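Would you be willing to look carefully at the protein I have copied below?

:::
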Amino acid sequence: MTDIKFAWSALGGDPALVSRVSTVVRRGALEARLPVRQLARACVGACALAAAELSARRAGLAEVPAVRVDDGAVATAFVSERHLLVDGRAPVVFAPLSRFWRTADGWVRTHANYPHHRERLLSALGLPEGRASVESALAERSALDVEEAVYAAGGLAVALRTPEEWAAHEQGAAVAARPLVERERLDAVHARVLPPAEGAPLLPASGLRVLDLTRVIAGPVATRTLALLGADVLRVDAPRLPELADQHADTGFGKRSATLDLAADRAAFEELLAEADVVVTGYRPGALDRFGLSPEALAERRPGLVVAQLSAWGGYGPWGGRRGFDSLVQVATGIAAIEGSAEQPGALPAQALDHGTGYLLAAAVLRALTEQSYEGGSRVVRLALARTAAWLTDGIEPRGVKGTAEGAGESTVGTAEGAVASAVGTVESAVEGAPYDRPDPRLGETDSGIGRLRYARSPVAFAGGPVDWARPPGPWGTDTARWA
């Protein structure tokens, strides 16, 4: 099963609602050997449908609003960090030591965007600062040796694997055995009473308070989307771990940002939790448990809570406690091998695992809220970048290769005059639009507390829904740690 029908099923949605989704197919968007465009479209479509479903529930509508997924908007949003400008300045997406390196027997990819990860990488290799020294040192070691040595030092490095090698790996097998979206009901508390959400635009998350304990891209994309949909989102970070300024600028739309030491300021956190509706976490599995932030502990103190957990590798298997990033998951799972050449590894045209999983996480929260309104119960939803990668490599039928027209299996028509049923058997409809050749129509500009911003607009669109965020990002960590 493929595309939005599969994603919607994984979220526990009513299959009949897929008929509310229409797609504008644009050739040239997110071109790759793997079906990245289809994955991105499905993730955004499922998120928009979940938003439309909750909107209908809260506004008392007889029918779920129609959802429109435009490949151009999706492609632009999936590389939002590349389109960002702050006072005309483009951000640096990857630091000098975040890259592929040739080893004695293959390739390894490191991630050192954050200062503490760079320090741990260099410490593990016993090297001073400098790209040349890293290059020569890695050339003398095996990729797996580097992977384990850097991990042991708290850094990030992953050896290049083929899809077959990942499938044979214990972690790869553990990930493949899990559902795309893990959903669990923790208790039997009474059904959530959601006040009516009337007026325009439809804001399905209005009045809801979301405690955002995420970093980097995937988690912040999820909470940025909930903010778009009306939630009061408060991002909380540890004072000693500042977010990268440009990353915060890209994913901070619609939110407020505060700092809080969970050990020293426990009372302040409990005050926030006491009024929260949703808690989203994006740290490695188990990292927050010592602060009493496991889903079970949170729901015990705040019955009726929705807890959303995001991880790189999943909270199980031998890599369950490891840190990870999109670029590293691509390398481990065989994606970099598929997208590369005989000379060197490659990469997807976007950090699609991050962005796709982020939209799915937001969708899972929205669906949990809808289910709560009927059935009650505290809820936990879990997603992992590696499981999204498995869906991309094994669960979505490839539609052509890089540089060629897409083959059989995608709903396209020669003109934009009518909608046709999806060739994979869903009742989702699609029309073909103009090829995707530039992002300009999907970009916005606004003044903010951190400068003049050019940014990618959200691709989540449904009839009567919001078209942009209510507020731009402000400087990281400068808001008060309390609800608006």
